[in-house]
Structure formats: structure tokens, C-alpha cells
Amino acid sequence: IRDYKVTGVQTCAHPIYLRVGENVLTGLSIDGGAAHLAKIPGEVDLNVAVASVVAGTTKASKIQLNATVRQEEITLAASLATPEPLSLTVAGRLDNDRQGLALSRVALTYPKASWTSEGIARLRFDEITLSLKNLLLRSQNQTLAIDGSKDDAHVDAHVALTQFRLDLLPTLVVPRDLNLGGTIDLDLKASGPVEGPKVVGRIRLEGGRFRTFSKIAAVVDATMADQRVDGTLDVRTPFAALNADFQLPVDPTAGGTLRLRLDVVRLDLAEALRGAGLEPQVDGRLTALLRLTGTAASPKAVLTVNGRELSVKRPATTSEGTSAIDVGHARIHLTYEDRTAHADVDFASAHGGELRVDAAARVDLSYPRVTEGIVAKKIPVHGKVVAKDFDVAWIARFNDRVETLGGQVSANAKLAGTAGDPQFIGDVRWKNGKVVAVAAPKPLARR
Asked: Can you list the positions of beta strands (E) in 128-197?
């Protein structure tokens, strides 16, 4: 066979329509031809057009795929028109043994950026080795460099991304409503045996932005080797600052020890809620320290949270207005070990009242049991509650069945029941108590 041609024609009256699950492709046409096949690789032309593709919430239209082969010269081109124009061109020349390609041009263009290659990159795909050497793409100050190879036993690769701007990404990759922004620097290296190479990476984000959050800075350093991931994390925002270090197994079910330390140095509650696009109903400053050790099958955890100058906005429906209720200071100390959780909670009200809760519960947080889901409200609890003139007005904000709650509670009682329905057994006194509750909805009549 020396020459052949295959042509598929699509007309508006009889469009080619394909559906795979929720993915839909319409208006497909294929036009191709080949000649001089005795002169491998000969001459080949292939043109594919797609009117539209819908995948989930993403829709792309007027997609073109074109491939041209002229003896050793190969050109590939792809483009789409919407949601934004995007095009990719790759041109190269086959090696004499037909198992490699010298890439003379790689170009990627979308509305806010245009990436082009510099120099000659080499792609090899022989029976032993797959490699890509000296690929360098540049778009003004942004650069992407890739240099790597893999054979049956060994891998050695390096990827470096410099000054990569998230706000320039096309809509097809990042929807505009995410308001994504910031500059990323990435350096990733992998070397060693194919079964378990050592991977070392560092990623830095400057001027990060996501939806209404902005001015985010973050640095992550991580190393994966010997089935473990070791690393550090540092995050800074206008409303929070935290850092962490960790040593975690790649496969939690295979055993191996856990070590995680997470330190929330500062968290401004109201600013964090505003950054999330929410109207803040609480205010104050928090710090937290979490330490996780043990194994995935038998974890141990210690969490300490301290809150200062805490306040809760009074429900607008109350006759007392919408001014804030001073909650004061709080300290929460949680521990977990041997399938037992323990909590020490201390509140010191801004008005002098005090509350102390000492509670415990049996709960299995081992892996993979924890992935099966835990109904927190149904967990049985037991312990002790001691209170002195503690102002309970702020609790109404967190119960949609209570419109107004007031008064001071003093108590010396045992705690029982469940986390969702606690019961207090003992001496409980409520002074100057006031409650306005919203009636429960009437059950629907049976027909």
C-alpha cells in the first residue's frame, strides 16, 4: 500500500454525537491521508475537528487537532476557541533511528501569556529509555525547565518553574470566579530506582490570592524517600500565621510512625471570616498547637487552643440589639490515645464568670476506621462540669432553636449523655435566667 486517504465529513443536519457518562462531544469530523508509505515514515496529514466538548461544568468549542509528517519533519498543532482562545504547536525532526525527536519549536499561547521554547530539546523513546532533555519554555519573566530520563531500573528528573503567575492562567484551567493569583516558584528533583526514587521538592507562593483571600505567602519543603515524607510548612496571611513540620508514611496502612507538629501562631477570627466572604459573628484571637505521634493504626494527639478577647455578636432578632457579647478567654486542651479522647475546657468570662469542663469519650480515630465516618453527636461522653456565675447569653448564637438566652449559671455536676445531647446530673443553678425559644416545626400529618 503506497497511498490512502480517509475523510469523515460532518454536516449540520447529521452531526456526530458522542456521550461518555456526563461528558458530551458533538460535531466530530476527521480528515486524513497518507502517501509514500514505502518511505517510512512517508507523508501523513491528519485533521480532527470537534464542534464542542462538555465535561462537567467545563465547555470547550471549535477544537482543532492537526498533524503533519513530511519524511523526518513532524508538526503537531492543537487549538480551541472557547472559553478562551488557546493554541499549542510542537515541531521537530526525527532522529535517524526513528526513536528520538529533536524538538525545534514548542509554543503555547493563551490570552494573557505566550510560552515559546529556547534552543533544541531532545525527546528519546527507544526500547530502554524514555527521556526529555533541555526543554526550556519562557514567557517574559516566567520560565519552565524540564530535564529527565527513565529506564527500566532508574529515574533521574528535574523540573523548575520560576515566577509562574497564577492570574495569567487560562479560564479552561482556572475559572475566573476563583480569583486565583500569586507567583509560584517550584523546584522538584527525583532520582533513584524506579520502584522508590528519592523526591525532593520546594514550592514558594508570594502574593497569593483565592476568592476574597489575598496577600498569602507560603513555603513548603518536602522530601520523599524510604516510604516516608518529611517536610516543613510556613504560611503567612494578614489574618493568620502558622508553621508545621512533619514525618509521615507514604502508605498509612503499611505501618510506620507519625510525627506532626502544627503551630497556629496567630488567627484573627473576624478577619478570617471576612476573607472567606462571610459576615463575622464571632471575634477574637486564637493560637493553637497540635502534636500527632504514634502510628496510623494507633495515633496519639495533643491539641491546645487558646482564645483571647473572644466575643459573639448578639442575634439581631433580640430586643437587646446587635451589640457583641463578651465571652472572655478560653483554653481547650484535647488529648487522644488508645481510642480515648479527653477534653479540658476552661472559660474565663469577661464579666468574671468561670466554666470548667472535664470530659472523656471512647472513640476510634485509627486509620482506616476514621475514613468510614463518625457521627460526633452520638458519641457517649462522661465527665464533670463546674461553673460559677457563667454568662450563657452567647450560646444562643450557636443554636437556631434559641432566639434569646440570658442569665448566669453556677454548677457542680456530672456530665453524661452524648456529645449532641449532654446531660448534667447534680447541682445546677441559673440566676436571672431568660430564654426565648423558636417553636419546633409541626410534624407532617400522615395520609
From this structure: 130-139, 142-150, 154-165, 181-193
Nearest to 409 by CA among 434, 376, 446: 434
- Which of 381, 383, 291, 382 has its CA nearest to residue 336? 291
DSSP 395: G
**Cis link prior to 368 (omega < 30° from 0)?**
yes
CA dist 362 → 233, 333, 343, 423, 436 (Å): 32, 17, 12, 17, 35
Global pTM? 0.82
Other C-beta atoms closer than 10 Å to the C-beta of 392 total 20
My answer on whether omega of the bond before 85 falls inside 30° of 0, hence cis, is no
What is the distance between the alpha carbons of residues 170 and 80, in angstroms, rounded to a whole number? 12
Distance CA 131, CA 136 (A): 14
Least confident span in 60-69, 267-276, 396-405, 424-433 = 396-405
Closest CA to 82 of 53, 112, 41: 53
The answer to whether 85 and 98 are in contact (CB under 8 A) is: no
Distance of CA 368 to the CA centre of its chain: 21
Query: pLDDT per residue over 276-311, tens digit each?
Result: 778 888 899 999 999 999 999 999 999 999 999 888
Residue 237: C-alpha distances to residues 165, 216, 286, 287 (Å): 19, 5, 14, 15
Q: In which region does residue 368 sit, left (phi positive, over 0), alpha (psi from -120 to 50) or beta (all else)?
A: alpha
**CA distances (Å), 340 to each of 362, 364, 367, in order?**
5, 8, 15
Which among 383, 381, 403 has a CA at the least distance from the CA of 393? 403
Alpha helices in 120-239, H assignment, sequence order: none
Rounded to whole angstroms, what are the CA distances from 293 to 253, 287, 288, 416? Answer: 15, 20, 17, 29
| pLDDT per residue as tens digits for the range 96-115 | 888 999 999 999 999 999 99
Cis bond upstream, residue 41 (ω within 30): yes
Whole-angstrom distance, CA of residue 230 vs CA of residue 325: 44
In angstroms, the CA 75 to CA 67 distance is 6
Between 327 and 149, the higher pLDDT residue: 149
Rg over alpha carbons for the chain, rounded to the nearest Å, is: 31
Q: Which DSSP string corresponds to 223-291?
A: EEETTEEEEEEEEE-SSEEEEEEEEEESSGGG--B-EEEEEEEEEEHHHHHHHTT---SEEEEEEEEEE
Q: 223: which strand partners? A: 200, 230
Query: 11: which strand partners?
Result: 14
